[in-house]
């Protein structure tokens, strides 16, 4: 209810701040061949700068975007590489110095959630050729790094690969959801 009221108030504020616009009709009237003689009465000055808002500035550095000017809070970083269709990745980090990377290569309708709560947590998850799988990585404080590659083999089975010597991740499958701790 609060969400709906807030959106309704934003819509009212937006409509109240708009300025009425006037426009010509959608159809162009055809001029007869005898109605126009000589030079055009409307001319554009040559020294008028371009009014294109997305044109880059000339001869200087490009303007920084908000993502690159505001440092991440607590030194957290999250990276995502998605090469597929209809994939969804959510990376939520609470604490400081956490790092997570998610890669989906050749996936369709996959969902990956990384939830980190603590200091200095690391997770790297890659899905290769997987379709319709949901993977949730839960990292409470003091958890070992999670590094894994999940791939679907030609026979349809999943193969979960972790680096040699890495701590064994606890994987629980619930239906079509893999929960990694």
Automatic annotation (TrEMBL):
Keywords, sorted A to Z: Signal
Superkingdom: Bacteria
Signal peptide region: 1-23
Protein's name according to its UniProt entry: Curlin associated repeat-containing protein
Organism: Bradyrhizobium erythrophlei
């Amino acid at each position: 209810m609060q969400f709906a009221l807030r959106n309704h108030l934003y819509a009212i504020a937006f409509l109240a701040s708009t300025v009425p616009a006037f426009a010509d009709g959608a159809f162009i009237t055809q001029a007869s061949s005898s109605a126009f003689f000589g030079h055009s009465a409307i001319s554009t000055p040559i020294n008028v700068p371009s009014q294109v808002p997305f044109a880059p500035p000339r001869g200087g550095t490009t303007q920084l975007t908000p993502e690159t000017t505001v440092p991440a809070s607590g030194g957290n970083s999250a990276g995502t590489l998605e090469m597929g269709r209809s994939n969804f990745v959510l990376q939520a980090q609470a604490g400081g110095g956490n790092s997570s990377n998610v890669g989906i290569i050749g996936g369709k309708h996959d969902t990956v959630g990384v939830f980190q709560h603590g200091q200095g947590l690391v997770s790297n998850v890659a899905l290769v050729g997987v379709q319709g799988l949901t993977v949730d990585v839960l990292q409470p404080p003091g958890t070992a790094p999670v590094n894994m590659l999940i791939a679907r083999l030609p026979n349809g089975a999943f193969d979960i690969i972790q680096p040699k010597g890495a701590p064994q991740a606890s994987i629980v499958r619930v239906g079509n959801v893999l929960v990694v701790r």
